[in-house]
C-alpha cells in the first residue's frame, strides 16, 4: 500500500501518521520527491481501512499495490534512483561502462587491462576472482589472491572495481570492493541475498538464466528488505531454445524495469550472446532502449584467456566499441561517467 501525502505537510502530523503505521507492525519506505512525499507500507496491510487513513488531513490519497515487490516498485519511489559509487553516479541519465576480463589471471594481465579500459573511457574495472563454472573441472578463479590483484589494479589506476561474490562467508574479503556482483546462478540464493541486504555495499544483481521479471525484482526486494537500497540490476540474457548464441538478450527488460521499478539497469552484452562480434550491436540496442550502462568483457589476449575468451574483446576492439558507445550515449542525451 502507498500513502501519498499533500504538498508541504507538517512534520509533526506526518510523524503522527507514521507512528500509527509502525504501531500496527508495518515497515515504512519514506520517499520524498520534488513535489510529492510517499509512504510505502510493507507488511500485512489487509488490516488497514483506507477510510481511516484518508481521515488524516495530511493524506492526499491511498493506493493498494498489487505487485509482490514493494520497496523496489516505482509506485513507492516515483523518481529514478541514483547509486553513487566512488565519485560515479549510476542511473537517471548517468551512463557507466564497466569493463575487464572475465577472470583475473595475473597482476600483469589485470593491470594492463585496467590501464587500457580506463584510457578508453570505462568508469569501473570488472574482473572475476571467484568464478562459478558449469563444470567442476573448469578454472574456478584465483579466489582471494584474485581479489588482491584486483585491488592492486585499483591502486595503480584509480578505477573502482566490480567483482562477484559466491558465498556469504566471503563478505569480509570484499571490504574494499566498490560494487559486489551477484551472479545469475545466485540470483535466488536467498541466504546470500539477506546477507548482502545487511551490508552497505552497492550490489550488482544479475538476472537468473531463466528468471521471470517478477522473480528478478523480488530478488532485489530481498536486498532492500535487509536495509541495503544500493541495488543495480543487470540483464545478461536468458536461456531460450536458440542454440546459435549462448543466451538471448532480453532488451524488453530495460523498458519493463523502467516502468515497474526505480532502480538503474545495466546490460551485459558479452554474456548475452557469448561471442565478441555481437557485443557492439547489442550495446547499441541497450543504449537505444534506455539502459543506464554496460558491463563488457575485455582481455589483453582473449585467445589465451582462462575463461570466456570467445566473448571477450581484445583491447583495440574495446577501444573501437567504446568510441561507438560514447557517440551513441551522447546522441541519447546520457552523461558518460569518467
Order of helices and strands: EHEEHEEEEHEHEEHEHEHEHHEHE
Structural class: alpha/beta
The beta-strand count equals 15
Largest sheet: 9 strands, parallel
What share of the residues lie within helices? 25-40%
> What overall geometry do the principal axes of the alpha carbons give?
elongated
Output the number of helix runs: 10
Distance between the termini: 39 Å
Detail the poorly predicted runs. none
| Average pLDDT for all residues | 94
Strand residues, percent: 15-25%
How large, in whole angstroms, is the Cα Rg?
21 Å
Task: Explain what you see.
This protein has 338 residues and is an alpha/beta fold. It has ten helices and 15 strands. It has helices spanning 11-23, 50-54, 107-120, 144-157, 190-198, 213-225, 253-260, 269-273, 279-289, 315-331; strands spanning 2-5, 27-32, 37-42, 59-63, 83-85, 88-90, 94-100, 124-126, 161-165, 179-182, 203-206, 231-235, 265-267, 293-297, 335-336. Strands 7, 8, 9, 10, 11, 12, 13, 14 and 15 form a nine-stranded parallel beta sheet that branches. The chain has a four-stranded antiparallel beta sheet with strand order 2-3-1-4. Strands 5-6 form a two-stranded antiparallel ribbon. The chain starts with a strand and ends with a strand.
What is this structure, in a nutshell?
This protein is 32% helix and 19% strand. The protein is an alpha/beta fold. The chain starts with a strand and ends with a strand.
Amino acid at each position: 500500500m502507498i500513502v501519498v501525502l499533500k504538498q508541504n505537510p507538517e512534520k509533526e502530523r506526518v510523524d503522527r501518521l507514521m507512528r500509527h503505521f509502525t504501531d500496527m507492525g508495518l515497515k515504512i519506505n519514506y520517499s520524498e520527491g520534488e513535489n510529492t512525499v510517499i509512504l510505502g507500507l510493507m507488511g500485512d496491510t489487509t488490516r488497514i481501512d483506507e477510510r481511516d487513513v484518508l481521515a488524516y488531513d495530511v493524506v492526499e490519497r491511498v493506493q493498494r499495490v498489487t505487485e509482490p515487490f514493494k520497496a523496489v516498485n516505482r509506485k513507492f519511489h516515483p523518481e529514478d534512483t541514483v547509486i553513487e559509487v566512488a565519485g560515479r553516479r549510476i542511473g537517471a541519465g548517468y551512463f557507466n561502462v564497466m569493463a575487464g576480463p572475465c577472470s583475473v589471471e595475473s597482476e600483469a594481465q589485470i593491470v594492463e587491462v585496467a590501464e587500457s579500459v580506463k584510457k578508453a573511457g570505462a568508469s569501473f574495472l570488472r574482473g572475476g576472482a571467484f568464478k562459478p563454472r558449469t563444470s567442476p573441472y573448469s578454472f574456478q578463479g584465483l579466489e582471494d589472491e584474485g581479489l588482491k590483484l584486483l585491488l592492486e589494479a585499483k591502486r595503480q589506476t584509480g578505477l573502482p572495481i566490480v567483482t562477484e561474490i559466491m558465498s556469504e562467508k566471503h563478505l569480509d574479503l570484499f571490504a574494499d570492493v566498490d560494487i559486489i556482483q551477484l551472479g545469475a546462478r545466485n540470483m535466488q540464493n536467498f541466504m546470500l541475498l539477506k546477507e548482502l541486504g545487511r551490508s552497505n555495499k552497492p550490489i550488482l544483481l544479475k538476472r537468473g538464466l531463466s528468471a521471470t521479471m517478477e522473480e528478478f525484482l523480488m530478488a532485489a526486494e530481498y536486498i532492500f528488505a535487509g536495509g541495503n537500497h544500493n541495488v543495480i540490476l543487470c540483464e545478461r540474457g536468458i536461456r531460450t531454445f536458440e542454440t546459435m548464441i549462448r543466451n538471448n538478450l532480453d532488451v524488453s527488460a530495460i523498458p519493463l524495469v523502467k516502468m515497474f521499478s526505480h532502480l538503474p539497469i545495466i546490460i551485459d552484452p558479452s554474456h548475452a550472446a557469448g561471442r565478441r562480434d555481437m557485443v557492439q550491436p547489442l550495446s547499441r540496442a541497450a543504449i537505444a532502449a534506455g539502459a543506464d550502462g554496460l558491463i563488457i568483457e575485455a582481455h589483453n589476449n582473449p585467445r589465451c584467456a582462462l575463461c570466456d575468451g570467445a566473448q571477450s574483446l581484445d583491447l583495440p576492439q574495446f577501444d573501437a566499441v567504446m568510441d561507438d558507445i560514447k557517440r551513441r550515449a551522447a546522441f541519447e542525451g546520457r552523461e558518460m561517467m569518467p
